[in-house]
Design a protein that fits this description.
The structure is a homodimer.
Chain A lengths: L16 H14 L12 H8 L3 H13 L3 E4 L3 E4 L15 H7 L7 H9 L6 E2 L14 H5 L5 H5 L8 H12 L10 E4 L2 H11 L6 E5 L9 H4 L3 E5 L1 E2 L2 E2 L1 H9 L3 E6 L13 H13 L4 E4 L24 E6 L11 E4 L2 H15 L4 H12 L2 H27 L4 E2 L8 E6 L5 H10 L2 E2 L1 E2 L10 E5 L5 H14 L2
Parallel strand pairs in A: 3-15, 5-6, 5-9, 9-10, 10-11
Antiparallel strand pairs in A: 1-2, 4-12, 7-8, 11-12, 13-14, 14-17, 16-17
Helix pairs in contact in A: 1-3, 2-3, 8-14, 9-13, 11-12, 15-17
Chain lengths: ~475, ~475
């Protein structure tokens, strides 16, 4: 476990720093936050987090050890002493460590956990983050809250499939994509990731195979693997997902689902051609292979709109379609949606009710208002304009600093540039070095375990100044 | 699958009703919402939902059959015809029915599914609903949104454990309960139910046993069973959970977790005495049995506060504590929290990040403001006042209408009255009869499969008028 806290010793108080640290640890132990037998932070980690000299921590820990609260244990560092327990009879309880290790759900990949934590290091430059910068968040919030929502709209438990008025707006919005669907077949979810979780728990069986692009965002998640499914990666070519590889695998009958991001693919930025969409759809029809189409980036075209979604070709109910407001409106609202045959939507709604009783009604109402009042379209115009200049600036930086070392294609939408190093370098070592240098990267191996020479760069999150500093530092770190 | 839609034929249009219905079905088929081979609603169900004569539906379906879009199939009703598919080659695809049946997650109990759906029948009287009535929702929303939140506060992805400012407020709020905990050991979740899901997926192993009161709210959920755990019910006496039964079971070493609702227990309304809390805690210490304390109703005391939480006795990190705003502030915000040893909180935060990337930041910010500005305490005063008159009215109705047939205890807080019928009656039949009569009940067997003669009544949701009509109708339906 990583040691993290917002607590810091207060130098303006009259109390010595080492004593403040000792009191802090004492309160952690007495409150049961650090139970008997659990490991406490190393002196080094504590000194770093608290921003003090290691000797100060040494002094604090010595006092705690003298009081019998902590003890060194060979092989496992310093632990909370059994003698600290109010009941001296109790040696070590409960063994949370074993609970933490035996859960059904797999832990996130180590690098993902590192990224989740590093994102909150102050001033870290996030060069790979798949989020809109706070500068891109909509300004219309106050206009919306001047509407005086009805209490029930924003505070009640929503229906299993989500707020009806939002499902109506989504259904209208989908018409613009060539998807004709009634609100009955729309399920509101707490972001696209939850859609994957519901599908994993609600539709697929243990031992299923999920096919997907290689690399793919999906490979950075544990959602299908934790539910006992395996993943099978299919190569990408100029036009998107390789249809021949798909046919070969689909014919074997082993795949239960094809997950694809045909528009502004994450992480490569590629767009599947219209022809390829038709081919992939026909192949899936032939082999009765359901498709899960993740279309979270569609609204973020920068040069021209992407070809119509696979779902728009679908009169057979073969395609489950996922949309999201996280990349366009804002991630903090946690609103996405799934479209599919009604019986599937009902099943997923039931699993959702069992997971969290539905998405925040306040968030649902807010998104509904954005759509209904036309504020969403207004906002997209702004976002596209801003993303175009960000993309231009990032490309210019790459030209200036990384032309020798790497190559890339110009994305026509979305957030990402899939950077390929021309020479063999150790990307894991680069990741570690960059963090020390205050730069957070998304290495290619997150999206394809076998990948050795890519980075996913994003121009959506860091400020212009941060992009410059970040790319300069990155260029400097390349061996 | 239940047939549900908000669509209705429009009598003011010049188009015959049967034709409107035929067009509706056609659009469902052409959009893939009702895929080839899937069953369409029965004529009876369609007539009921659309509010038309059955003969009108018969006429519409006859037209669709003549066009080859639907066909009768012996044994499985009317299905979408294969000939309807744009590609005549394709007989039936994909077999969503089999996907829907094979998911890892168990479906909700049938009665729970019926309840989830019946809740949205217009004018239904909900006599058992465990939610605050919309009348009880806070009025302070506009005051809060006048604060002009920073964009990042309400739109950004939150930290894995949740918005820091909210965790600070919760930590302060917990001090009032005798729980001393830093924001580091608080995890924000999307409602208490999600806490259970995270614990099931993140901490427990397949084949574990979860001990709990019998009856218990927990037994109405599938969350632990779907993750491969079994449940073991322990009896309740005057002082709460039976400590002797707990000791016997705990000594066998088979339990991995004790789930309990010591304050204003759901569904019985009982409060565990202080003495019993101490005994239960000591027993769990002795047997190293972790406790999951669900304290969602604590703030809703009506006569006097409940004894301190088990967590306040806990210096050993034995207790995981769950709190929630769903019963007090509003369910639609979907905000709850878990408190426990830091290593457990980190593990649960990681599983949460993999499930939905965190709770709505907009909801988190809103709850933080309620707490920070003291609006939450103000609101609680109002809610308690209102619940007291609701409880008094419900008790008066029971005295008038159900004294002969049933008995009950007066709850000292929370939402529920645990009604026991003195004679053997068929509660399942009563449930069905009541729905037909426009009254939705929560039968006791939801909370204990073996229960045959209880209802969970709630005075929190229905209006005074609805309570009266509902109890009158209920009294009339008792055989």
């Amino acid at each position: 476990m990583k040691f993290e806290t917002n607590w810091r010793p207060d130098r303006s108080r009259g109390i010595p720093i080492y004593r403040q640290i000792a009191d802090y640890v004492r309160s952690k132990i007495e409150s049961g936050e650090w139970p008997t037998g659990s490991r406490i932070p190393t002196e080094r980690a504590a000194a770093k987090v608290f921003g003090v000299n290691r000797s100060t921590v040494v002094q604090a820990f010595a006092e705690l050890a003298a009081d019998g609260l902590i003890e060194g244990k060979s092989g496992s560092g310093t632990i909370v002493s059994a003698a600290s327990a109010w009941d001296k009879q109790v040696p070590k309880l409960p063994d949370w460590e074993s609970y933490v290790k035996t859960g059904v759900h797999r832990p996130n990949q180590r690098t993902i956990q590192d990224i989740n934590h590093a994102e909150f290091i102050p001033d870290i430059i996030r060069l790979g983050t798949g989020e809109p910068s706070p500068d891109l968040f909509p300004k219309a919030m106050n206009r919306i809250f001047r509407q005086q929502p009805s209490q029930t709209d924003i505070f009640g438990y929503p229906e299993p499939r989500g707020l009806y008025s939002l499902r109506e707006e989504i259904s209208k919005h989908m018409t613009g994509y060539g998807i004709s669907v009634s609100p009955d077949s729309v399920l509101i979810v707490s972001g696209a990731l939850q859609a994957l979780q519901l599908i994993a728990l609600g539709l697929l069986k243990n031992g299923s195979s999920v096919l997907t692009e290689s690399p793919s965002y999906l490979q950075s998640l544990q959602v299908f693997q934790s539910a006992g499914m395996s993943m099978w990666g299919l190569p990408l070519d100029e036009e998107g997902l390789d249809a021949i590889a798909l046919e070969r695998y689909a014919a074997s009958g082993k795949g239960t689902l094809l997950y694809t991001i045909p528009s502004f693919h994450n992480p490569t930025g590629k767009v599947m051609s219209l022809k390829r969409r038709q081919d992939v759809y026909q192949l899936c029809v032939k082999h009765k292979l359901p498709i899960l189409e993740d279309d979270a980036y569609r609204d973020l075209w920068l040069d021209k709109p992407s070809p119509p979604p696979l779902k728009s070709l679908d009169q057979n109910g073969l395609v489950l379609y996922i949309g999201s407001m996280s990349k366009t409106l804002s991630p903090g609202l946690r609103i996405g949606w799934v479209i599919g045959p009604e019986q599937v939507i009902h099943r997923l709604a039931d699993v959702k009710m069992q997971s969290d009783y539905g998405a925040s009604t306040l968030s649902q109402w807010t998104v509904m208002q954005f759509l209904r009042q036309g504020l969403y379209e207004e906002h997209l115009d702004q976002v596209r304009k801003e993303l175009r200049s960000r993309r231009a600036y990032m490309l210019q930086l790459l030209e200036s600093y990384l032309k020798e070392a790497a190559e890339w294609e110009v994305p026509t939408g979305g957030f990402y540039i899939w950077l390929r190093f021309k020479r063999d370098i150790s990307v894991p070592a680069l990741f570690d070095a960059a963090i020390k240098d205050g730069v957070l990267l998304n290495p290619g191996y997150l999206y394809d375990k076998a990948d050795r020479n890519h980075l996913r760069l994003s121009y959506s999150y860091a400020s212009f100044e941060q992009m410059k500093t970040g790319i300069e530092r990155l260029a400097r770190s390349i061996p």
